[in-house]
Amino acid sequence: MKPIFESIDLASDTSLKIAWYDHKSSCDLMDWHIHPEYELVYIKNGSGTLSVDTETISYHNGALIFLGPNIPHADFGNRDFPDNLEVVIQFNEEFVQQKLMNFPEFRSFRNFLRLSNKVLLFDQDLKMELAEAFESFPSLNSTQKIIRFLQILEALADRDRYKTLLDRVTLIPCSPKEVGRLEAIFNYVNSSFEGEISTCTAAAHVGLTTNSFCRFFKKMTGKPFVQFLNEFRINKAVELLEDKDLTISEVMYRSGYSDASYFTKQFKRNKGSTPSYYQNSLKRLA
């Protein structure tokens, strides 16, 4: 699949792009994409997956996430409920440096914006507190939207109520060609993880020798490809285990494994328990 570089086009009378999607509409870019803008996303409700850089986690009852520039990610939304709403706010570094930072009152945002390189997932209580603010955007004019955005940004920066999805910034400064190659690898894994994937097949997919591929992937992500693949598949297994009608064997095969002992070993390494123990803990919580 050809990597997608998202071009964020701003209207001449706006400083940032604010878009919203309901149950009948969705973001145009569903696959892996990248852009140089900051992105703040509010999802009202429903369940889905947050795929960002080399991390994939599930969310329930919506999400509020903030990520910095040039971080590969997939669409975060879902269509679980008719009343769902996804609000996406995007703004560039020029807006930060030439507009926000010109006001001494906004310079406290600097550290908060820098943290977005590690991707911030805010807690549910804060998401609910700001729900009315996000859901009001469709009814506001341009002036009201920028004021509302600054109110939201101040509320987020003033509260230490988030967790970081990335332990460190894994993507070093790189060329568009390198970013495109990495996105192609992510897309390949995302579309083919249920089947046979090896370092050799992934290397061939992006036109590299196996040795060159291994060096490239480690340089770009800070981890070996096999480690990334296992982490990705185990996160998919966790999502599947939430379907109580599936057996452990079905989850194993659908997440790309064919060896039960290897699957259990990788699951325990990544999640700290066996698949059966994890599944039973979900049943106890139900």
TrEMBL record:
Keywords: DNA-binding, Transcription, Transcription regulation. SMART domains: HTH_ARAC. It holds the Pfam family AraC_binding. Gene3D superfamilies: Homeodomain-like, Jelly Rolls. Residues 183-281 form the HTH araC/xylS-type domain. GO terms for molecular function: DNA-binding transcription factor activity; sequence-specific DNA binding. This is Helix-turn-helix domain-containing protein. It comes from Poritiphilus flavus. The lineage of its organism: Bacteria, Pseudomonadati, Bacteroidota, Flavobacteriia, Flavobacteriales.
